[in-house]
Amino acid sequence: MKFNTKTIHGGQSLDTSYNAVMPPIYQTSTYAQSSPGNHKGYEYSRTHNPTRTALERSFASIENANYGLAFASGLAAIDAIIKLLKPGDEIISTNDLYGGTYRLFTKIFSTYGIKFHFAGMHDIISIEKLINKNTRLIWAETPTNPMLNIIDIVALSTIAKKHNILLAVDNTFATPYLQRPIDLGADIVMHSATKYLGGHSDVVLGAIMLNDKELADKLYFIQNASGAICGPQDSFLVLRGIKTLHVRMQRHCENTKKIADFLNANARVDHVYWPGFDFHKNHDIANKQMDDYGGMLSFKVKDNNNGDVFRILERLKIFTLAESLGGVESLCCHPASMTHASIPREEREKSGLSDSLIRLSVGIEDSDDLIQDLRQAIN
Fold this sequence. Notes:
The protein is of the alpha/beta class. 37% of the residues lie in helices and 15% in strands. The protein has two domains: 3-242, Type I PLP-dependent aspartate aminotransferase-like (Major domain) (Aspartate Aminotransferase, domain 2, 3-Layer(aba) Sandwich), CATH 3.40.640; 245-378, Aspartate Aminotransferase, domain 1 (Alpha-Beta Complex), CATH 3.90.1150. It has helices at residues 3-9, 50-62, 74-82, 99-108, 124-129, 153-162, 175-178, 213-226, 232-242, 245-265, 283-289, 306-315, 345-350, 367-378, and strands at residues 67-71, 90-94, 115-119, 135-141, 166-170, 188-192, 206-210, 269-273, 296-301, 320-321, 331-333, 357-361. The strands form two sheets. A seven-stranded mixed sheet has the order 1-7-6-5-4-2-3, sandwiched between helices. Strands 8-9-12-11-10 form a five-stranded mixed sheet, with helices on one face. It is globular. The chain starts with a helix and ends with a helix. InterPro entries: Cys/Met-Metab_PyrdxlP-dep_enz (IPR000277), Cys_met_metab_PP (IPR054542), PyrdxlP-dep_Trfase (IPR015424), PyrdxlP-dep_Trfase_major (IPR015421), PyrdxlP-dep_Trfase_small (IPR015422).
């Protein structure tokens, strides 16, 4: 089954009660048992829910995985992954990553004795130097948020397997439409399904996909024991969103290329961060592991101060100034004061995230309207 078909049919079956084409929303907390322990596979909705099961099967299908798990948010999914570790374990993470992930790592799990090393993973050689006997996990985003760095997943996987370390990849920006980390050697794939998988900015949800049964069983246990699960309504909304992922991503990519070219030619723009440019430092890796370059880009304006950046963001009419990304509507963001404010300035600047950076989540509107909106705001 090819990807465009998987988004609609992957892991799905007709409802057994009435042959409903769409999975019903099982808005129930518990299930009747004919005798103690004798039931139809469902006992309590924190543990399992048929609507969530349909979503989890879809998750597995689109990432070419054996197992899928759905959580209340992307951060809840990350939380479950880090709970696989114990005090004294160490994690190597990219230094250019979502601010909420950095906050979870440094403000929560570091207090429980887990040590984090942050490094620029576009330089693969430097990663192996950080590995020691306590290293248990490599955490990567690619493309990264918000600098759009590209990390070589195959190279990371080779290092991880050599040292018997898990490799987890946040695939939120790329989506499985463009990139499938499990096929490239990753052990665990994570998504903020709030973004492109849901696609309509109307739900918060997280996803994990993987192949290893023993690891999946541990994560299912954590999912049930910790209880950070998503409800049936949210499961239904993301399952519905996945059915149009392929057509949405195609338009996201088309629009973003046009906007990247426009910004790159604009005299007021200093630099555009987008992996589709041949001058992007890891453009060749993007070509190797991605099918297209995605719907995200960042840029800096020349002769900037915060007032200039803020005025541009305030003047935009079609782009909405808001956090999050991956919806059908175009969004703009000032990472330093919004999505990445939890990262100290000196740490942000190490990865190139300056106060002058603007991040765009390019939607599926008409590209001419989006370009005109940017033109009037910048010029």
